[in-house]
Amino acid sequence: xxxxxxxxxxxxxxxxYKYNQGSKGINVHADDALxxxxxxxxxxxxxxxxxxxxxxxYLKEPPAGFDALTFNNVGYGDIDLxxxxxxxxxxxxxxxxxxxxxFKSTLLHATDEHDFFPGYESRRVSVTFLFGKRLQQSx
Length: 139
Hints:
Helix content is 12%, strand content 27%. It is of the alpha+beta class. The termini are far apart.
């Protein structure tokens, strides 16, 4: 069950986003935790393109010892995070209602392109739980 997946990791943060139609979603970023759980709750019939609408996970992490707030809001030196992630292998996870995506929180990730039908009930909803404290490494 769920406790077996999480073990003794404490919940650090949780939130939900309800997106406007036509919005880009959340840009490339890394979260300040050990484990990220995302799931989507709106019916699949609200998504106009079943091959997209979920998320992109890049198989790249920020440098060791990164400060999440600075990294996610300022970037990495003179390089914005889209450029930092560019060319990295990635996994595109299509949207599916009740799909749970679990991954290492420090992997760069972003909302995939999405096109949901108009109307409040059809807006894409993403729920996120962050578990565990990221190990701080000195640089």
